[in-house]
UniProtKB/TrEMBL annotation:
Residues 56-247 form the ER-bound oxygenase mpaB/mpaB'/Rubber oxygenase catalytic domain. One of its GO terms (molecular function) is oxidoreductase activity. It comes from Martelella lutilitoris. InterPro entries: MPAB/Lcp_cat_dom. It comes from the Bacteria. This is DUF2236 domain-containing protein. PANTHER family: BLR2777 PROTEIN, ER-BOUND OXYGENASE MPAB_MPAB'_RUBBER OXYGENASE CATALYTIC DOMAIN-CONTAINING PROTEIN.
């Protein structure tokens, strides 16, 4: 028996079958089957955004279905407290410490991102509240005294604090607006930038979403101008540094720990994961990087030369951007990255939203 065979027998977690890659509803579902929001007089039935909202125009667009996850991670991981929370508390970081992290674990972490949030975006108020409360409980322990060992003046972080909770939601939603405006197609034409009025309405709707989590209502933006002021106010908390990845308790680099563990736990069956990551962490991330703001690209660590290459690639690959938004490809990525419950939610919400707009 070879070493690989022995490893396979003693650690089945290394094996990745097609069924495990796709996952069942259990991977995404939290606290029951979600119920889609309706066009109704009762606020509880309409949910956070609801049919006819600008948010649903954005959220339900095929470009957002395909590119949401990589775009969100680009912006969200420029917010230093989020990186610190992942570094110190995320389950995949804990696994890396134990030497148990696999390539599938990394994919699974990103795979669950959109599908877990979809019930809050598209569900009725009860569905959204149940899932939000679950996430609040999960994040109760995510707190630390040090964001960046190289910059102690930044202080600490707390996922459920009004500041960090607000930015987790705002970065999530702002990235989707950029994807819609800069990568979206309607037929063969680009969606383009929303009018200033509709952009302001989108931000106002997003602030209602922020209220599902701990928040300071006076800080929540009501317009795009308010959001820009918030970015300026918290500018020191955005960007990357050489010491941000350093684990305060041990002095180790958490990226290095991840890579060492993934390499140690490699298995031939994980080629399926590499194929998916080629899109999510490769091609789609590059295109999403071209969709975010120039400030976000700089905060991500891109050099001016790298930024030019990314922007040129978006222009050159526009036919591909259009192609992956077509139904067969969109359905594939919707099921793979959002899960079966989200497939139902998106399909139902699109019908309800279209009817609401016709009225």
């Amino acid at each position: 028996m070879t070493t690989t065979d022995q490893t396979t027998v003693t650690n089945p977690n290394l094996l990745v079958s097609r069924e495990r890659l796709r996952g069942s509803a259990k991977r995404w579902r939290r606290h029951g089957i979600p119920t889609v929001a309706k066009k109704a007089e009762e606020p509880a039935a309409r949910g956070v955004f609801g049919p006819g909202s600008v948010a649903w125009d954005v959220l339900l667009h095929p470009a957002v279905i395909v590119f949401q996850s990589p775009a969100q991670f680009i912006l969200q991981l420029t917010y230093k407290p989020v990186v610190a929370g992942v570094r110190d508390w995320d389950p995949i970081s804990k696994k890396a410490h134990r030497g148990e992290l696999t390539l599938f674990d990394v994919f699974d972490r990103g795979q669950r991102n959109s599908g877990i949030h979809a019930p809050m975006w598209l569900g009725d108020r009860d569905t959204a509240t149940r899932v939000a409360q679950h996430l609040i409980r999960v994040h109760e322990k995510v707190a630390g005294d040090v964001i960046d060992v190289g910059h102690p003046e930044l202080g600490g972080y707390q996922a459920n604090s009004p500041r960090d909770s607000m930015w987790a939601a705002l970065t999530e939603m702002h990235s989707m607006l950029w994807v819609y405006e800069r990568l979206g197609f309607k037929g063969f034409r680009r969606t383009g930038r929303l009018t200033p009025e509709r952009r302001d309405r989108y931000i106002a709707e997003v602030s209602e979403y922020c209220k599902l989590f701990p928040h300071d209502e006076e800080e929540l933006p009501k317009s795009m101008a308010d959001l820009k002021k918030l970015y300026a106010k918290y500018d020191d908390l955005f960007g990357v540094t050489k010491t941000l990845a350093t684990i305060p308790a041990t002095g180790e680099n958490f990226h290095t720990l991840w890579m060492e563990s993934i390499k140690k736990n490699a298995h031939p069956s994980q080629r399926k994961v590499k194929f998916q990551l080629f899109f999510q962490e490769g091609l789609f991330k590059m295109l999403a990087m071209a969709a975010v703001s120039g400030k976000t690209r700089k905060n991500s660590g891109l050099t001016p030369r790298q930024e030019k290459k990314v922007l040129a690639a978006r222009v050159a690959l526009l036919p591909l951007v259009w192609l992956v938004q077509q139904p067969p490809f969109e359905r594939y990525f919707l099921r793979m990255m959002w899960g079966p419950d989200a497939v139902e939610l998106v399909n139902d919400a699109r019908k309800i939203h279209a009817e609401a707009k016709r009225r």
